[in-house]
Amino acid sequence: MSILLSAGFALMGAGIGAGIVAIGAGLGIGRIGGQAMEAIARQPEAAGKIQGAMLIIAALIEVVSLFAAVICLLIALNIAGIS
């Protein structure tokens, strides 16, 4: 019984972790987009540089969040005994 309860908590933790990762990535990319639009509104001549930096940073956030979500999925699969 204790092992099943521990496995259930581990699966629930992996699911919650993946959800937090998705929320964090969404908030981060939304903030980047908003700040970039404000910067472009203030200095339209720098739009190209701002957009390039924004896309690079957004891609890095996506990579980190995908990595974290995959780790959560692997933990869940390992606990469930599927791997």
TrEMBL record:
Topology in the lipid bilayer: Multi-pass membrane protein
Q: What function does this protein fulfil?
A: Key component of the F(0) channel; it plays a direct role in translocation across the membrane. A homomeric c-ring of between 10-14 subunits forms the central stalk rotor element with the F(1) delta and epsilon subunits.
Sorted keywords for this record are:
ATP synthesis, Cell membrane, CF(0), Hydrogen ion transport, Ion transport, Lipid-binding, Membrane, Transmembrane, Transmembrane helix, Transport
MF GO annotations:
lipid binding; proton-transporting ATP synthase activity, rotational mechanism
- List the GO terms this entry assigns under cellular component, sorted alphabetically: plasma membrane; proton-transporting ATP synthase complex; proton-transporting two-sector ATPase complex, proton-transporting domain
The name on file for this protein is ATP synthase subunit c
Pfam families xref list? ATP-synt_C
Per the record, where is site Reversibly protonated during proton transport? Answer: E62
Report the locations given in the UniProt record.
Cell membrane; Membrane
Family matches, as NCBIfam families? ATP_synt_c
**Known PROSITE patterns for this protein?**
ATPASE_C
Cite the CDD domains for this sequence: ATP-synt_Fo_c
Q: Report the domain of life of the source organism.
A: Bacteria
User: Where does the V-ATPase proteolipid subunit C-like domain lie?
Assistant: 12-75
User: Its family?
Assistant: Belongs to the ATPase C chain family.
Transmembrane ranges? 6-32, 53-80
